[in-house]
């Protein structure tokens, strides 16, 4: 943990093996994905103490995002080709969204619609709240064309941001 005012390390907190991403909630909780332990570590931001570890029920958790209402943490499990939906009040995975191709980043619209980038398919899967299957899959590139241009570096769609009603999806190959 680094003090932003002094740029000094003030503490170290042991989290899951191979930690990948950290998300801070408005409630003062820190959620860190453990790629090597297939879990999310919950830390109290005020005390810097680990409260619990939540299994994600899929392999390779990396990126995570809080739902707009702050009730759920969505975790992209790249190696497991799934997204885990964690109910933060219950502290457990309540849904696993399957059938994705290396999901990587998750972005929420204010209405709760989730956009999940997929490194393995050059598509963005769109989920509405409470739905286990995508309502749309947006093509965001051409694997065949990009593979022919960069055969050693085909990465797919990896990140996205939502602003003013527009989804900006990045493609490492373009």
List the SSEs and their pairings:
Layout: E1 2-3, E2 8-9, E3 19-24, E4 29-34, E5 39-44, E6 49-55, E7 61-66, E8 72-77, E9 82-87, E10 92-97, E11 103-108, E12 114-118, E13 123-127, E14 136-139, H1 143-149, E15 157-163, E16 166-171
Antiparallel strand pairs: 1-2, 3-4, 4-5, 5-6, 7-8, 8-9, 9-10, 11-12, 12-13, 13-14, 15-16
Descriptive account of the structure:
It is a single chain. The protein starts with a strand and ends with a strand. The chain is mainly β and 174 residues long. The protein has one helix at 143-149; strands at residues 2-3, 8-9, 19-24, 29-34, 39-44, 49-55, 61-66, 72-77, 82-87, 92-97, 103-108, 114-118, 123-127, 136-139, 157-163, 166-171. 4% of the residues lie in helices and 49% in strands. A hairpin with a 5-residue loop joins strand 7 (61-66) and strand 8 (72-77). The strands form five sheets. Strands 3-4-5-6 form a four-stranded antiparallel sheet, with no helix packed on it. Strands 7-8-9-10 form a four-stranded antiparallel sheet, with no helix packed on it. The chain has a four-stranded antiparallel sheet with strand order 11-12-13-14, with no helix packed on it.
Which segments are poorly predicted (pLDDT under 50) over 5 or more consecutive residues?
143-158
Roughly what fraction of the amino acids lie in strands?
over 45%
Mean pLDDT, all residues? 82
Order of helices and strands: EEEEEEEEEEEEEEHEE
Number of strands: 16
> Which structural class fits the helix and strand makeup?
mainly beta
Count of DSSP H/I helices: 1
* Strand numbers in spatial order across the main sheet: 3-4-5-6
Largest sheet: 4 strands, antiparallel
N→C terminal distance: 35 Å
The radius of gyration computed from the alpha-carbon positions, rounded to a whole number of angstroms, is: 17 Å
Apparent shape: globular
Helix residue percentage: under 10%
